[in-house]
Structures are given as structure tokens and as C-alpha cells.
Amino acid sequence: MPQAKSVWELVEGEIRKPGTVHITVFALLIGVGAVAGTFGSIAIPLGYGVTGFWPGVAVQAVGGIWFGMWGVLAGGLFPFISNSLAGAPLYVSVAYFPSNFIQGFLPAWVFRALKLDPSLKSSRDWIHFIWSAVIVNNFLGAFWAVTALQWFGLITVASVPLFFSGWVIGNGIPSLVFGAILLKALSPLVVRHRAFCKGWWA
Amino acid sequence: MKRTLLGYLPLESPVHSFHPIVKTFFLLIVSVYPLLIDSPDWNLVGIFVLLIIFYLSRIDVSILRFYTTIMLNIFWIIFIAYTFFGGYSPDYHVVGRLGPIIVSWENIAWAFSVYCRMFWGILIIIYFLSVSRERDIILGLRWLRLPYVISYTAGLALRSIGLSIIDFNTIREAEKARALDMGELPLTHKIKKFGLYIVPLMSLALRRTDEVSNALDARGFSFAGWRDSRRTEYMLSKYEVRLRDLLVIALMVFMLLALLYLKLTTAVLSTSNSLVLGVLARALGVS
Q: Are B120 and B46 in contact (CB under 8 A)?
């Protein structure tokens, strides 16, 4: 069988369509993310679901890279569960949805647009992983989150740096450490799995 | 006892007699109430009423002790954020000074109001999780006639949480069997060890993906067929919407509309006439 130049390209004759496997992986990612997210939110809570250490962001970034929009949507939805279990009101979880969405969407888009290897084999893969899945996605997520918290009157302008830095650091470190471990360890297995999305939905 | 999302609910609880859709509406509608109320007086009334509902629903209130640390953390974060980082205006009433930091009554009042609002919001979530089962959420979605794929996926997601927790505990037990004593490790090592559970959790989730999707395919489910809303609603047929379900839903909606009206047209829900804040101000010596 002819080999594709990258994991993102369809080989000749390959047809991919959304199916039951994608619905299933979407649902199961929510479960894994909820467990990972709940642990972090309880371990070092800062308030309003913001935590000094949140492993759930690794599931968001990696889920988006591997499973496209299924992973991105799962990453946006499982925090509803983990935040609720950690004691954040529902409206706070709703307000955080755009943050959680972008934290999964940006690395998913970058990896597909630049045809990066999810196994992080080259320095190019690492560089783009770090800026898209560790730094910029969490900066954007934090920016929206503190804005939402201000809208609800839950934080003041003067306390924005505290929550912003808590979000960025609390997400950035797990995303770097656990995201890299997940991609290095499981990508060779996942890219051969039928749930792996070369496009956005299949 | 019936297993709920957060614990167990006695069979004698009157909550079981309500249609699952009531619980869904409770989460969606009552969660908005704290958002509309600034006055700590009314938020405290809401907290008191909800605690009475906890008691009437026969929920074991000891479940709240698991949230004690979270509630205290949130209290300190709000207190510190508003008191020391709340900003200052010359017309504020100064309560004290800590070096260059001015502690003013207005910031303390706002911190107290925000905390009361958060406390009520958190109690609402705890109540919903204490009385709801996965089936209730799925039935609520089905009753709303959402596509089958959405309710099925929601049910699978909720069930997978329990499966992931079982896997998580299995991995922990395996590490204990290998003489790993988490209690002796420093915090950074504990965090690292817990985080490395994600790799086996994801592996197990991938394997389960194959099993579940193969089972669905073997039963003839197809992606297109999931959009068909004319399925036989066996589980839903076991529940009947009764007058009291409609009355409770109507009451919740009425309360929401009333709060919206008061919020938009009056100052009843604002902090300006709060009795509790008045008492607090006098206690701090603020005129």
C-alpha cells in the first residue's frame, strides 16, 4: 500500500467518515478528562474552578490533536463535570467553555495546518507543540476566563493578574509535562487507530 | 438506597417520585438565581431554603464536609482578592491599613456578597449531583426530544466517568502492590505520580472505545440512524409527567421571571439596602 508522507494525509484509496467509533471516543474522552480535571481542581484550588495544577488541559490539547473536533468538543465539555464536582457553579462552567474550547482547538489546528507529527519526533514538532499547546492556548484561555469572571463580578480588575497567572501556570505546566508524555507514549498507537482523525471529523 | 452521581439517596426520599425532567430543569433554571442576586440577604435566604430542601430530600448532609476545604479556599481567595486587590477610591470607608494596602469597607462588603452568591451556586450543584442519577440526565434529554445521539453520548460520557474512576483506582492499587507509598512522597512527587496515571487511563479508554463501538456496530447502530427521533422510548415510558412535576417546573420558571423583573426594574436584589451588610458595617465600626 502506498505510504502517506505524513500521518495527516490520506493514502490512496483511503476513505474516512465519522462513525460510531468517533461518538464513542468523544464520550470516553469526557470521562477521562473529567477524572483528570477533577483531581487537579481539588488538589490545588484557587477558586471558581481555577486551579494551580490542572492535568485536564493535557487531555484537551492531546484529544484535539488526535481526534480533531471530537477531542476539541470533549475538551470543552468535560470541565462542566470536573468544575461541578470541584465546586464551581454552573454559570461559571458555561462562561469557561470558550476557554476550554480554544485550549483544545488551537493545537489541533496547528498540528493539522503544519502537518506536524503527533509523536513529536523533530524539534519542529516540539517547538510548535510548546507554543500552541502549552503557551498561547492557555494564554487565550486565561484571557477569556478572567474576562468572564469579571463580567460576573466574581473578581476585581486588580485581582486579574492573580487568576490569570494561576490559570496560565496551572495549565501550562501539566500541558507541557503530561501532554508531551501522552503524545510521545501513545501517538504511535493512536495514529493507527480508526478513531484517529486525519481531518476534523474523521 | 439508590446510587446518585455524588453518593446515595434513600428510597424514601420524595425526590424519587418526581419526573427526571424536574431535576434537569432544576439545574438549568435554579443555577441562574444566584447570578441575578447581588444582595447577600437574598442569597442567604436561598441558601437557607436549599438546606431545608436538602433535609426534606433526605440527603446525607455529611456530603457537604467534602466541600469544606473548597469552600474555605474560595472564601480566602475572594477575601484576599477583593480586600487587598479590590482597588480604592477616595470616597471609600477605610477600615484599616496594611502597609501600602488600604482595606476598605466597600471591598469587604462586595467580597461578602460575592461569597454568598458563590456559596449558593455551589450548593445548587451539590444538590443536583446528590439527587440525580445518570439515567435522570439521559431521560431529561430524551424528554426534551433531543436527537438520540446526544442523549446516548451523554449517557456514555457519564458512565465513562465511573469507569475511569475504577481504572484510576485499579492503577493506584497496582502501584501500592509494587510498594509505592504515596503517603510518604512529597507533594511534587505525588502530583507527578498522579499525573502519570493519564497514560494508562487514555490507553484503557482507547481499548474501551474499540469494545463499545464494535458492540454498537454489531447491534446495527449507524451514525445516520441516530438522528431518527422516532425511537421506542422504553425507559421514558416508565415515567409519567404529573401535575406536581408541572407545578414545580412552573414555580421555578415563575421565580426566575420574578427575579429577572426585580433585577431589571428595582433595587431589591442589590446590595444597597442589605440588612446583613448593615450589621457587618456596624460591627466594623463603619458609619
A: yes
Q: Which domain holds residue A43?
A: 20-190
Tell me if A4 is assigned to some domain: no
Q: Does some domain include residue A81?
A: yes
Residues on chain A touching B221 (C-beta within 8 angstroms): 20
* Axis-axis angle for helices B198-218, A160-190 (nearest 10): 60
Nearest to A153 among B114, B158, B162 (CB): B114
In a domain, A83, yes or no: yes
Is residue A184 less than 8 Å (CB to CB) from chain B? no
The answer to whether B103 faces chain A, any CB pair under 8 Å, is no
Which chain A residues contact residue B110 at CB under 8 A? 153, 156
pTM for the model: 0.82
- CB-CB contact of B120 with B47 (8 Å): yes
Calpha distance B66→A85 (Å, rounded): 10
Quote the minimal CA–CA distance from A181 to chain B in Å. 8
Give the Cα separation of A51 and A168 in Å (integer). Answer: 10
Q: What H or E segment, with its residue span, contains residue A73?
A: helix A56-85
Taking CA–CA distances from A29, the nearest residue in chain B reads B205
For B121, name the nearest residue in chain A, comparing CA atoms only: A89
pLDDT, mean of residues A36-60? 70
ipTM confidence score? 0.83
- Indicate yes or no: CB of A178 within 8 angstroms of CB of B198: yes
Are the beta carbons of A82 and A41 closer than 8 angstroms?
A: yes
Provide the shortest C-alpha distance from residue A45 to chain B (in Å). 7
Give yes or no for residue A175 having a pLDDT over 70. Answer: yes
Domains: count for chain A: 1
CATH number reported for the structural domain that contains residue A32 in this entry: 1.10.1760
Interface contact A53, partner B, CB < 8 A: yes
Mention every residue, 6+ apart, whose C-beta is less than 8 A from residue B205: A25, A28, A29, A31, A32, B160, B164
Instruction: Provide the CA A12 distance to its chain's centre, in angstroms.
Output: 31
Residue B182 has pLDDT above 70, yes or no: no
Distance CA B3, CA A105 (A): 36
Residues of B in contact with A92 (CB under 8 A): 121
Question: Does B70 sit within 8 Å of A42, measured CB to CB?
Answer: yes
| Measured distance CA(B59)–CA(B124) in Å, rounded | 13
Q: Dmax of chain B from CA atoms?
A: 74
Q: What is the pLDDT of residues A118-164, one digit of tens each?
A: 999 999 999 999 999 999 999 999 999 988 888 877 777 777 888 88
